[in-house]
Write a structure and sequence with these properties.
Blueprint lengths: L3 H19 L17 H8 L2 H20 L10 H6 L6 E3 H7 L5 H10 L18 E3 H12 L1
Antiparallel strand pairs: 1-2
């Protein structure tokens, strides 16, 4: 609908100009001499017509049909399990993913594990002054989980 309306408005503008100048009809002024747009009172007359209401109804029907056909695509990232199963494809995990992998431990516990060397932080080049996300190497998370289950 967002693409149809501008095209329809431009058609209406050109049609109005053609009717006014090209057909030799004696019509009142319908378009602006400044920018060629349809004068507001003329546009209101068009929009009050039965033909315009029919156009609006058909446009809404097209939009509804197009909306019904297009289901929104849900894009999801990999799950924590997928990351742990394939660390070569998913080399890092966020702090929240580490917490989910470890049954929801606190943020401070994850940072303590990193300080103790149980988890390795991803070494990312940060812009100066930019605050980065806490990322951890998936292999270190996987190794810690495997060692704690033994």
């Amino acid at each position: 609908m967002d693409r149809i309306r501008p095209v329809a408005n431009e058609f209406l503008r050109k049609f109005t100009i053609e009717a006014y100048y090209g057909k030799g009809l004696h019509l009142p002024q319908m378009t602006s001499h400044v920018n060629g747009s349809i004068l507001p009172e003329v546009r209101q007359d068009f929009e009050d017509s039965a033909e315009w209401r029919e156009f609006e109804d058909e446009l809404l029907a097209v939009a509804d049909a197009a909306g019904a056909e297009q289901k929104p695509k849900v894009i999801r990232g990999p799950t924590v399990r997928e990351k742990l199963d394939d660390p070569s494809t998913y080399p890092t995990m966020t702090l929240d993913e580490v917490r989910r992998a470890t049954s929801g431990v606190s943020r401070s516990t994850v940072y303590r594990w990193a300080d103790e060397g149980k988890l390795k932080r991803a070494d990312l080049k940060k812009r100066r002054g930019a605050r980065g996300r806490a990322l951890f190497l998936t292999t270190s998370v996987k190794a810690m989980l495997e060692s704690s289950s033994e």
